[in-house]
């Protein structure tokens, strides 16, 4: 697959390194993703050099190697691969490669050892070190010292007799020492790693092969290794701008992974369990450096685990069930005990971000908000907890959960079902919110097994009449005055919401509509790629063009709806 790294970063499984092409300047950047998406990631600008001056080049990028081809003499090139999780390997054919640091005041470069073949770079802002090692050829370093740091840092690798090679390695404290093999062997390691991942991805009809390859690469390349707050390998949402793991995005990635890689799938949940607050709340997001509880995400975690169990019986192990049950129990009690004023009111979202639908129209009149999607997710989670308690022979708890779910259901229908429709309430004034055109209000379909059949029929009819578009479900009714192109949650299609509705439709017998939505979404990826969200009418990918939960949802839907078909 030929890649445009202005949209899709060049990286690899387990690595915090990424290469991107800056959209504004056109410069090739080496980036480091430590510290999450609030930390600057660009650390070097990269340029191809011949006879001491920059030359124009073309990028030739596949999933596992990046080449800078001399535009006039393409037999001259520099090639890079991320051979190991913390190691970049490079080789030169007839040209030099120059790296210019994008540095802060205290960042500093110094010789390492006595033979001038290694230089250690201390990145104060990133709290890491890089070791630059010349393996063959020559190295030129321009890094004059000025009081507390280098005035500038420019490292140029030159070939000797036409060829050269080098390594760049990342670590936190002390260079561990490493014997480097030759470039072909190093490249073969990363190529083989990706090939093994690709082989585990679901098979699809030929029509969807471009989407399968793209989804496979994005999910593979967005994983980072355990470090700091990350207790296991984590699949970030993206290595463009949203390089954290969020606590509902992780559910869709875990579901996709569960069939072939149950340990990695479970790790996506376990990372949040490891940091679960004593109140029971899961963190909003986690990266190697930070655990943020400023917001949270909707309670879909027990449902996701239930889906994972269906895909892999290994996750039915009683030890795993007990651990998951305990965590989901505490997370559920957080919503019941800490997010409502008394038992006559429903739990609330304190911010749009708590819902995952950050700027949805139900949040435009203020917060906190009683929202029907939150209650529906909670009821389903509690019903699943009741079943889990029974499996674990906790009979009293199973009955208590059933009673709690019944009480919540009655409150949902009493407070948020008005004149034949679900509504949201502005909790401080106990009033129905005026804006009632968001798709989020139809999410109670996920508990269709509790709803009267005629109510489910009305929900589905509303989906078809007000939200269904050429490529799927708009997140704001397209006839609404608030509908907005590229409006984030005010219109664009999102993968996780699509999957939640398809699952709910299937579970409640609306199989024809579920299949139609699945096929629409698969077609959408052929137009808009694996973007964060999509224009419902043109199919254009919006915001971040390389998102993992979009990729995971495509792979899940392809497995369920496309195998053996013609697309």
List keywords for this structure.
567 residues; alpha+beta; Beta-galactosidase, Chain A, domain 5; 8-stranded antiparallel sheet; 13 helices; 34% helix; elongated
Your description of this structure?
- It comes from Paenibacillus aceti.
- Residues 244-550 form the Mannosylglycerate hydrolase MGH1-like glycoside hydrolase domain.
- This is Glycoside hydrolase family 37.
- The protein is α+β, with helices and mostly antiparallel strands.
- Among the domains are: 17-177, Beta-galactosidase, Chain A, domain 5, CATH 2.70.98; 339-437, no CATH class.
- The chain is built from 13 helices and 31 strands.
- It has an eight-stranded antiparallel sheet with strand order 5-6-7-8-17-12-11-10, covered by helices on one side. Strands 1, 2, 3, 4, 9, 13 and 16 form a seven-stranded antiparallel sheet that branches. A three-stranded antiparallel sheet has the order 20-21-22, with helices on one face.
- Strand 28 (468-469) and strand 29 form a beta hairpin.
- The relative contact order is 0.09.
């Amino acid at each position: 697959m030929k890649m445009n790294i202005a949209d899709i970063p060049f990286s690899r499984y387990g690595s915090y390194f990424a290469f991107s092409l800056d959209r504004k300047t056109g410069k090739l950047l080496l980036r480091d993703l430590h510290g999450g998406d609030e930390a600057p990631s660009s650390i070097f600008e990269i340029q191809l050099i011949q006879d001491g001056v920059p030359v124009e080049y073309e990028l030739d990028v596949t999933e596992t190697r990046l080449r800078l081809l001399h535009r006039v003499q393409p037999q001259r090139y520099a090639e890079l691969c991320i051979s190991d999780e913390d190691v970049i390997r490079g080789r030169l054919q007839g040209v030099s490669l120059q790296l210019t640091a994008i540095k802060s005041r205290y960042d500093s470069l110094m010789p390492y050892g006595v033979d001038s073949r290694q230089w250690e770079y201390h990145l104060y802002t990133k709290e890491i070190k890089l070791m630059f090692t010349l393996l063959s050829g020559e190295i030129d370093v321009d890094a004059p010292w000025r009081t507390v740091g280098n005035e500038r840092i420019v490292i140029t690798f030159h070939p000797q007799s036409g060829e050269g090679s080098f390594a760049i390695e990342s670590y936190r404290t002390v260079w561990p020492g490493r014997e480097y093999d030759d470039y072909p062997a190093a490249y073969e390691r990363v190529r083989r790693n990706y090939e093994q991942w690709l082989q585990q991805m679901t098979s699809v009809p030929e029509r969807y092969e471009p989407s399968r390859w793209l989804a496979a690469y994005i999910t593979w390349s967005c994983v980072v290794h355990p470090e700091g707050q990350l207790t296991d390998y984590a699949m970030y949402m993206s290595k463009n701008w949203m390089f954290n793991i969020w606590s509902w995005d992780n559910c869709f990635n875990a579901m996709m992974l569960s069939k072939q890689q149950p340990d990695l799938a479970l790790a996506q949940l376990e990372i949040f369990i490891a940091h679960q607050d004593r109140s029971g709340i899961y963190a909003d997001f986690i990266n190697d450096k930070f655990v943020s509880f400023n917001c949270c995400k909707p309670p879909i975690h027990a449902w996701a685990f239930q889906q994972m169990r269906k895909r892999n019986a290994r996750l039915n192990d009683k030890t795993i069930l007990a651990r998951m049950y305990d965590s989901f129990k505490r997370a559920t009690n957080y919503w019941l005990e800490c997010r409502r004023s008394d038992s006559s009111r429903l739990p609330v979202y304190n911010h749009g971000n708590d819902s995952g639908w950050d700027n949805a129209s139900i949040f435009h009149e203020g917060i906190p908000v009683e929202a029907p999607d939150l209650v529906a997710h909670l009821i389903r989670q509690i019903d699943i907890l009741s079943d889990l308690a029974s499996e674990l022979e906790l009979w009293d708890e199973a009955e208590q959960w059933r009673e709690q779910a019944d009480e919540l259901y009655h409150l949902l229908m009493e407070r948020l079902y008005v004149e034949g429709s679900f509504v949201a309430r502005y909790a401080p004034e106990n009033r129905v919110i005026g804006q009632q055109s968001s798709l989020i209000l139809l999410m109670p379909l996920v508990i269709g097994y509790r709803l009267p059949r005629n109510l489910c029929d009305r929900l589905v009819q509303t989906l078809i009449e007000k939200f269904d578009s050429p490529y799927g479900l708009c997140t704001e009714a397209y006839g609404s005055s608030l509908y907005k192109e590229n409006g984030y949650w005010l219109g664009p299609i999102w993968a996780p919401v699509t999957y939640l509705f398809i699952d709910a439709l299937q579970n409640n017998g609306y199989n024809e509509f579920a299949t139609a939505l699945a096929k629409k979404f698969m077609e959408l990826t052929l137009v808009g790629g694996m973007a964060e969200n999509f224009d419902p009418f043109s199919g254009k990918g919006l915001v971040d063009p390389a998102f993992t939960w979009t990729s995971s949802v495509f792979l899940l839907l392809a497995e369920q709806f496309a195998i053996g078909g013609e697309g």
